[in-house]
Amino acid sequence: MRTPAPVLLAVFVTGCSSQATLAVYSQPTGAYLTEVGSGTPFGIAPQLVVYPKAGVQSNPDGPGCYRVRGIEARWVSGARTALNPIRICGSATGTYNITLARDSFSPDLDKDLQFALQVEAARAQQQQAQAASDAALISAYSAIQQTAPVRCTARQVGETVQTVCR
Predict the structure, then answer these.
(1) 81 occurs within a structural domain
(2) CB distance 78 to 118 below 8 Å
(3) Are residues 78 and 71 in contact, defined by beta-carbon separation less than 8 angstroms?
(4) How do residues 1-41 score in pLDDT, each as one tens digit?
(5) Cis before 6 (ω within 30)
């Protein structure tokens, strides 16, 4: 079985940060992501993986580049691909994107595409639920804002401050 070279996009975003954030995608969506070597699970792609700045800086790999432990993607069909190590170039902090692509010659691509559709449908439902929840919170906040304001006055009487609110 031939393992394709995954597509690696490293996009540097400026800003003050104490970590590097790697947004890991799979093509097709829905691969199960684990850390190479340790087997630490990251979940179903897409996922955010965070590396502390000190850990990134301790693994230099050429001018302006750093190495971090690789990531393996495994699809429901059993197809796998990995990138190990991963090179982050530009800064030890910032946001980067990586896409691990499935070998199209591996068997059962249809299973992986079907699962990708299910993952996308579930994420769309989560987004709709979050939007409804956000709308309800905004409505409740607006109702609170429409109540009469509380007005308080304070005055000093000797060594005591008396506050009266209406």
Answers:
(1) yes
(2) no
(3) no
(4) 333 333 333 333 334 468 999 999 999 999 999 999 999 99
(5) no
Residue 157 falls inside a structural domain: no
Residue 120 lies in a domain: yes
Q: Is 79 helix (H, G, I), strand (E, B) or coil?
A: coil
| Residues 6+ positions from 13 with CB-CB distance below 8 Å | 94, 95
Q: What is the pLDDT averaged over residues 96-107? A: 95
Q: Which residues are within 8 A (CB) of 81 and not within 5 positions of it... i.e. 6 or more apart?
A: 3, 4, 6, 72, 73, 100, 101, 102, 103
Rg (CA), the chain: 25
How many domains does the chain divide into?
Answer: 1
Structure tokens at 133: 């929840």
This prediction's pTM: 0.69
Domain around 27: 8-125
C-beta separation of 6 from 98 below 8 A: yes
| Helix, strand or coil, per DSSP, at residue 163 | strand
More confident position, 27 or 140: 27
Could you give the CA distance from residue 67 to residue 63 in angstroms, rounded to a whole number? Answer: 12
Residue 64 placed within a domain: yes
